[in-house]
Amino acid sequence: MPSPDHDPSADRTPEAWANRADAISRWERRTSADAPAGNRSGPPRWARLWLPVIISFLVQVVPALVVTNRARLPPELALPIVALALVGPLALIGARRFPGPVVAIATAATAADLLFTPGSGAPYLALAFAVISAIVRGARRWAFASIAAGWVVVLVGSATLGVPWHPGRVLLTALGIIVVMLIGEAVRTRGERVAAFQAASRKRREDAAGAERVRIARELHDVLAHSLSQINVQAGMGLHLIDSQPEKAREALSNIKATSKTALDEVRGVLGFLRSEGNIGWGAEEILSEAALVPQADLSRLPALVKSISTDELSVQLDNRLTSEPPPGVQLALYRIAQESLTNIVRHAGATNAEVLLVEHPADYVLAVTDNGTSTDHRAASSVTEGRGLLGMRERAELLGGRLDAGPATGGGFTVVATLPRRSGQ
């Protein structure tokens, strides 16, 4: 029992709960009714249901039988004592489903015992279990109303019937009621805190899963959109030249083969990267068997990217003025943004010239992709209803603490500018 100087609220401070949150969550998961039987600790469900009944029976009914037998009371006097002692334990059987009515029944039985058998001395453990169960299971009003009504009935009834009450018994009964209600409130508060913690944990897991889906979609979009656009352009060129310039058509087919192989490798690389972080595990081992061998995209691939985009109709220049090597995260973001920007130029701009410029400043790295296209479709990509490609580029920049600006260039055409802090991607 705590000392008078002990403050029970100190055990329920935010700091104390923060230190115990993980342990409480694990315990609750193991002991919940929904937990798998093999992972559940503590007493089984039947024990949690029947232990209060059995304990109350042993503490209330057995002593009542012993007292009436030793006193050699006649059956007409012994039977009410035993019956009143038995009502509470039997009522506890329905405490899980009907906590409110059960606490009312237990209170009535206790009040009757206090009024009509004040000398039996039976502890009212069934009432204590019923009060705690009602408070914990959301029937607080039932518990408070039943206790208040029962207490009034006992006081008024004892005065009316002339039942002698020892002052010590009155005090102990009142203290017992207060202690039981405080225990019920403490258990209820703890349960609510555990439930809130578990809800927050589920929310964090759901948010993390959603963010991971977005990341997967963004990576696959960047890889596939670029490659499929290139394949589409090369296939159209091959069909156009297959009769008049077979060699050019053969070159287009070779480019399609190379582009598709690169795309397949990059998709494997993306999935392999996700698997290495423990984010997938769906039995895709055969598909991902070579993923670890595929390097992640970085700025060293920019020259090959620019070369693959350049055609007789579109000239692309790369101007790399970086004097230091950005962190891997920044390199991946800059490469993907450049890749998506060039893909958009091929698909929408109708441009003949494009430039990829990389520069660095003391605080950030800057990528600028500019074209001289005149297509209104390309300009529309910067509107409020921007497509997934531009959204993905903006998300990449913002995830690293940077920004992305896209819009018409000063002398015509279109410009995409990504600015990433030098500290990001470390």
Structure description:
- This protein has 426 residues and is an alpha+beta fold.
- The longest helix is centred in the middle third of the chain and has 75 residues, at 167-241.
- It folds into two domains: 8-204, no CATH class; 297-426, Heat Shock Protein 90, CATH 3.30.565.10.
- It has a five-stranded mixed sheet with strand order 1-2-3-5-4.
- Residues 1-42, 278-294 and 378-386 have low confidence and may be disordered.
- The radius of gyration is 38 Å and the shape is rod-shaped.
- It is built from twelve helices and five strands.
- Strand 4 (403-408) and strand 5 (414-421) form a beta hairpin.
- Helix 5 runs parallel beside helix 7 (167-241).
- It has helices at 14-31, 45-70, 75-91, 99-116, 125-136, 140-161, 167-241, 246-276, 302-309, 328-349, 376-380, 388-399, and strands at residues 315-320, 353-360, 364-371, 403-408, 414-421.
